[in-house]
Design goal:
The chain is α+β, with helices and mostly antiparallel strands. It contains five helices and eight strands, in the order E-E-E-E-E-H-H-H-E-E-E-H-H. Among the domains are: 77 residues, Nucleic acid-binding proteins (OB fold (Dihydrolipoamide Acetyltransferase, E2P), Beta Barrel), CATH 2.40.50; 89 residues, no CATH class. Helix 1 runs parallel beside helix 3.
């Protein structure tokens, strides 16, 4: 179908193309991940200014022709999250969040909840940038990824053994089984401590702004559990979350 497409979008990636253009990777609430070309945007007198940079949330009008690559015809800023661009940890977390969304939700399927989650994460990173209540932490990145797993239908089984259903003696995690496993079923899994288990359960149950605390060992175990779940069941490899 050809014609104009009006949508909100977050710019998750921007690539130079030709002498003055850019290819934008956008995440939208009702069209999922889409790609568009912004013609002439790198010229000094471009009407788009700097608002087609990564992590901007925009109202956009795109022209859809016969190509899968849409054309940007209009872009108005909803928010540019300016503070996170002045904080190295915050912008690194923003980049990793956008990359995780791009890898896990790479199709045009609508996921308005994922779009809202990404906007919420960028807003939290922006609000805490440069201050004592920064959200650019290892725990925050892992909580964000756990919520992406939930949205993708890949959330790990945490209430009981993923192999036999046993509710007690949950001592390991198996990506192949899809969750925690008990001492009788732990073959093929890796040790998962109580702190890591509690962190994952708490992160899935709490708001993103209220991530539970955990020590670095627990966070490393939680990250391995997330990575193995995504690889076994989503056939996707995520970039490592940076420890802060």
């Amino acid at each position: 179908m050809t014609g104009a497409l009006k949508t909100e979008a977050v710019v998750i990636r921007s690539l130079r193309y030709g002498e003055a253009d850019r290819i934008l990777h956008l995440y939208t609430p009702h069209r999922g991940r889409i790609a568009a070309i912004a013609k002439g945007v790198r010229r000094s007198k471009s009407r788009f200014g700097g608002r087609l940079e990564p992590y901007f949330r925009l109202h956009m009008v795109l022209y859809q022709g016969r190509s899968e690559l849409l054309t940007v015809t209009s872009a108005d800023t909803i928010t540019g999250y300016p503070r996170l661009r002045e904080d190295g940890a915050a912008i690194d977390s923003a980049a990793r969040a956008c990359d995780a969304v791009a890898r896990m939700f790479e199709t045009a399927d609508p996921h308005p909840g994922v779009f809202a989650l990404l906007c919420n994460e960028l807003a939290l990173l922006d609000a805490g940038a440069g201050g004592p209540r920064t959200h650019a932490t290892h725990a925050n990145q892992l909580a964000f990824r756990l919520k992406l797993l939930l949205a993708a239908g890949l959330a790990p089984q945490l209430a009981g053994c993923a192999s036999c259903g046993e509710a007690d003696h949950l001592v390991a995690f198996s990506g192949a089984a899809g969750g925690v496993v008990c001492s009788a079923c732990e073959a093929g899994g890796f040790a998962l401590g109580e702190a890591a288990h509690a962190f994952m359960t708490g992160a899935l149950g709490r708001a993103l702004a209220d991530v539970p605390e955990a020590d670095e060992l627990a966070l490393r175990q939680a990250e391995r559990a997330i990575s193995e779940t995504v690889e076994h069941h989503g056939h996707i490899r995520l970039r490592a979350a940076s420890a802060r």
